[in-house]
């Protein structure tokens, strides 16, 4: 087995760069919106929501990460497959940047139709909500995303599991980096219009309509939230943390809330969110699974107890050239009788 120490800066750079790409793409339309046509900003800014979410996630993870068991299994060490995954994430993200620049120079294709499922879900989830309230829900979704992302970090800090910063955190960052890189590449490949841009002309929520950045499929917020929730719960299971059921429940709750808010804020369609749920959950389970601890064998089963001491009383009988040896005693918790004759 080849142990590979992944460069933490490389993985974290991919995570932060991919996350920044999603935020920039989302805010590109609001930067050029004329002040006269723009709705007033909500009371909660996106930065405030992100800070509050990060603090909440750390506190929640620390509260649930306490452990009482003496023996905590440790993850398997990082291997060559981790280097391959990290390198693939970097290459995929770089490819998404190149693809995005090439698509930006091309003519914008028609928006295309919206399937009935997405249209019906949007009608129920968005309704007649004002643009200001949609932006508020958009900011809140960034806060719930931060809770889901930082909860596993707080859990690891409080649980004090072996090699938490050299194995658990890199595995968590690796799963997140792979998810964000795939998401960035698929966004620029599919070029699906966000619902707020698709329905802008019909609903006249803002005039003129913001530029269509074409990064709707699939939801980066949702996939990031679910990869953190599932990976954090999987790590809690591996380490036998006593509160692992609550870690799963709280992580999936905030991840689900993030997905629902992305639809209610008119940032994504239902299929964008559902795909993000599947992609994030798959990476959050599969990558930590590569480092599942070896099963712990109980000490009693590993080394059988030594047999109890045997006691014997030999009796020698001689007759001419023949010799008989009679042994009477106890062995293994029961009586023992042995008879040996030599001619």
What can you see in these coordinates?
This protein has 343 residues and is mainly α. It has two domains: 8-289, no CATH class; 310-342, no CATH class. Helices cover 61% and strands 8% of the residues. It is built from twelve helices and three strands, in the order H-H-H-H-H-H-H-H-H-H-H-H-E-E-E. It has helices spanning 8-31, 46-64, 80-105, 116-126, 131-159, 164-190, 195-198, 200-203, 220-238, 244-264, 270-289, 299-302, and strands at residues 311-319, 322-331, 334-342. Strands 1-2-3 form a three-stranded antiparallel β-sheet, with no helix packed on it. A hairpin with a 2-residue loop joins strand 1 (311-319) and strand 2. The longest helix is centred in the middle third of the chain and has 29 residues, at 131-159. Mean pLDDT is 82; it is low at 1-7 and 20-37.
Concise overview:
The protein is mainly alpha-helical and 343 residues long. It has helices spanning 8-31, 46-64, 80-105, 116-126, 131-159, 164-190, 195-198, 200-203, 220-238, 244-264, 270-289, 299-302, and strands spanning 311-319, 322-331, 334-342. The chain folds into 2 domains: 8-289, no CATH class; 310-342, no CATH class.
């Amino acid at each position: 087995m080849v142990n590979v120490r992944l460069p933490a800066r490389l993985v974290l750079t991919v995570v932060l760069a991919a996350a920044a790409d999603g935020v920039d793409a989302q805010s590109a339309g609001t930067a050029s919106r004329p002040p006269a046509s723009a709705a007033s900003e909500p009371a909660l800014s996106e930065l405030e929501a992100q800070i509050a979410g990060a603090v909440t996630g750390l506190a929640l993870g620390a509260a649930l990460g306490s452990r009482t068991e003496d023996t905590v299994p440790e993850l398997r060490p990082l291997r060559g497959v981790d280097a391959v995954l990290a390198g693939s994430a970097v290459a995929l993200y770089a490819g998404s940047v190149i693809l995005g620049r090439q698509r930006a120079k091309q003519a914008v294709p028609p928006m295309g139709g919206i399937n009935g499922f997405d249209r019906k879900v949007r009608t129920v989830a968005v309704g007649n909500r004002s643009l200001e309230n949609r932006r508020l829900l958009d900011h809140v979704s960034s806060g719930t995303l931060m809770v889901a992302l930082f909860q596993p970090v707080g859990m690891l800090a409080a649980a004090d599991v072996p090699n938490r910063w050299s194995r658990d955190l890199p595995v968590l960052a690796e799963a997140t980096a792979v998810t964000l890189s795939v998401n960035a590449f698929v966004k620029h490949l599919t070029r699906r219009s966000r619902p707020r841009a698709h329905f802008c002309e019909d609903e006249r929520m803002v005039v003129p309509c913001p530029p269509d950045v074409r990064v709707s499929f699939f939801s980066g917020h949702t996939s990031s939230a679910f990869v953190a929730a599932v990976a954090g719960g999987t790590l809690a299971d591996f380490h036998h943390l006593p509160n692992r059921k609550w870690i799963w429940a709280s992580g999936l709750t905030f991840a689900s809330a993030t997905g629902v808010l992305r639809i209610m804020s008119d940032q994504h369609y239902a299929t964008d969110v559902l795909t993000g749920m599947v992609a994030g959950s798959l990476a959050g389970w599969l990558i930590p699974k590569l480092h599942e601890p070896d099963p712990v064998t109980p000490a009693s089963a590993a080394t059988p107890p030594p047999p109890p001491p045997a006691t014997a009383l030999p009796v020698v009988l001689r007759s001419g050239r023949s010799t008989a040896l009679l042994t009477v005693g106890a062995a293994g918790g029961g009586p023992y009788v042995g008879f040996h004759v030599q001619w």
